[in-house]
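YM 10:42: (African queen) hypothetical protein sequence, as discussed on the call
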Amino acid sequence: MCDDMNGEILRPTRAVTMETGGLPLVSTFALLTIVAGQLQGSGYGEAEPEFLSPLENITVAQGRDVHFTCTVNHLGSYKVAWIKSDTKTILAIHTHMVTLNPRLSVTHNGHNTWKLYISNVEPKDSGTYMCQINTDPMKSQMGHLSVVIPPDIADDDGSEAGATEGGSVELRCTATGVPEPTMSWKRSGGRNIIFRDDSGKEIKVVESYVGSTLSLRGLKRTDMGTYLCIAANGIPPTKSRRYEVSVFFEPIVRVASLVVWRAADMQVTLQCYVEASPKALTMWQRGKSQTGAKLLNSSKYIISEDFLNEYAMKMNLTINRLKRNDFGEYTCSAANAYGKANVTIMLKETPQKTTTTTTTTTTTTTTEMITTTVVATTRSPKRHYKKQPDRNKNALDIELMHGNSISVYNYNTHGNNSHNEYAQRTERQKVRPSGPPRHYIVYNKASRYETSIFVLIILAFL
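YM 10:58: structure's back
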């Protein structure tokens, strides 16, 4: 035993050292002896210290700064110490730092508040921290620090996988983080994940799948695309990684119509739809695929491609200002490592339409009032006039009646729908022995031509 600088006796203790920052620290088992020997006395007769509030539990992301606050009333001559209880490491006594860790520090406001600061926290800082008073028995309170780490996906897993149609692939995704991340899978574009058996029969269809490994069997071309591995543990940001799945098969070529019609001097676009994986080499030819000349981009031919999805595309051939020798066969072809395919389209000239021009001449006849005077002879006929309903236009109807009488119907040949035509009935009168000849005035609103017909018919029967 030996005396310290204050003349008090230090009792021998078993020292346990902890490595922090590369330097040893005295363990918590020696704390009471040090406090009793190096600091002031036990403070008998004074009011007992008391904690005003508990230490809080703190969860913080790696790299952030945190602090614990310990508030004590009636501390008197007693002292406050900070200890990492799970490792039994003394960090500070009152305002004196014991640990050599430069990221830790303590403050005292000169009254009743002590704070322990930890900057740029690391996962190893996680644990239980104790604010302790050197009373007998000791008084203490504890708070827990949880250092969390956002998820991170390992780069050692491949990001591409492929198989022939009907085959299978397995996607693996691992991640680190605190707490341990949950792994899930989704397809890009909101498409469903389809699970099949080896024969290709569907087992289930899901929007997402939870697990670090995604197995796809009985692959079809529609399974091609991007799959997302998502790692989440509640600590932002969530991490994701893209996996490209390819399904290989030989090309297929389709067309909307095998025959396309177009008039000369016009523009036409021929189209072929191709499905292939891996992407096919495509070509347009004039004529059959075996003998036709390959077409290239020029002012005459414009060749383009439109990609529809991971395995489908549209081939376009635009031909400008069609001439007679442009009509005929055109072939689109596609080839990859698994096979080739082609389709021939027949371009035909649209027959010219024959246009007949009809010229219509319209003659306008002026209708005027005609006055005809008929001089009756001794056997002058008696004429009666009666308004008749309109009949078929552009027609002249003559009907012979019984005996010496006839009926004449004159219809408007000028498209006039007014009822101005008259029908004339002529009857021969009996011979009168005496009397002056009678005069009849005939009024007819018709054309000169129509009036002449009336006169000729009347004179023929006189």
